[in-house]
Amino acid sequence: MTVAILGGTGKEGQGLALRLAARGRSVILGSRDAEKGRAIATELNARISSSLVTGTSNLEAARDGVVILSTLPYPGHIEIATELKDQIAGKLVVTATIRWPPSLDGVPSAAEDLARALEGSSRVAAAFQTVSAGSLNRLDGESEDVLVFADSPGTRREAVALVESMGLRGVEGGPLEKTRVAEALTGVLLGINKIYGVKSTGIRITGLPARGSSP
Amino acid sequence: MTVAILGGTGKEGQGLALRLAARGRSVILGSRDAEKGRAIATELNARISSSLVTGTSNLEAARDGVVILSTLPYPGHIEIATELKDQIAGKLVVTATIRWPPSLDGVPSAAEDLARALEGSSRVAAAFQTVSAGSLNRLDGESEDVLVFADSPGTRREAVALVESMGLRGVEGGPLEKTRVAEALTGVLLGINKIYGVKSTGIRITGLPARGSSP
Questions:
Q1: What are phi and psi of A167, to 5 degrees?
Q2: How far is B190 from chain A (nearest CA, A)?
Q3: What is the model's pTM?
Q4: Interval A12-43: pLDDT, tens
Q5: Which end of chain B has less Cβ packing within 10 Å, N or C?
């Protein structure tokens, strides 16, 4: 089940690609610049002795991916996704894009904007908002969780399964609107990074049932 | 260094008192009803074979505590704290009170309301917003963190030291305004509790330096 990563040549997209390919999933990196997509794919394959990563345009990635991950930068992410609406229709679209700067002023999250723009044509979930590119690119490290938001429990569970196929624990955080909290929390984590002089803090949810007994 | 817990007879206050007394700190539980304060203090002492917990009115607790913890319920917490302004002047006041329901609409957190009401007469920090009474009352369990917010780094560190004297890790989360995120996150944690059928989820910050190397 090939995963397409839109805007996949950034650090966050590369980290997701690495984790997927390292576990045997085929990944298509989409980029505004197909040539750049191919070049980064070659680099990633070399890093993990794989041939599972390919690179191309966002349009071809969206068309050929069975599941869509989006690490498109916040400025312009809606315009690009809207152009790809036909290619991603009927698919699970998991967006990691966060509104920047984060706001606690009642403004919708980037994920809510995306869901509205796609008008129900794709199944939209949000995930990875609090996960730094540094954590994704480090295949070891202290185990952090990925909060997953979607209005439909079924969509949340699909997205959790995708997250878990990367060796990370996905935790259902509730409806898409709550992505606002994950965005704001990312702002707090960046502040914590500064205070403690570190680069990649994340969160883990304590008090959950042991793995394997998800709802 | 005696710790007074205002509104300390609720489940959250009891949990904090237990953790402090179990580590040798004297605790005064303040209550609207001094008699209730005394009764709960007796119960807590019995649970941990201690005599370190005493109970009284909020006023006497505020007067006699060297450090003040507040677990006052959200409705009325500002009125009570304002009445105790003289008793808590010049002291560290760590509030666990959260605005309910949590809002992401740009409204100040309960802690910001408190700081404004006290007009700089006390050193105000926020902590324990994401920590459930269930976690506090369980002296074992998966280790969760306590986010600590205050405008002054010195006040944050004082509050972190208080948290750590209870055997919990305190993590500086930044200025008091960011308590809004901790309040909103508590709303998400309650949602996670429902989804997973558990009672006391919390958070842990990953990627921090090892304990003992705080900033």
A1: 80, 15
A2: 9
A3: 0.94
A4: 999 999 999 999 999 999 999 999 999 999 99
A5: N
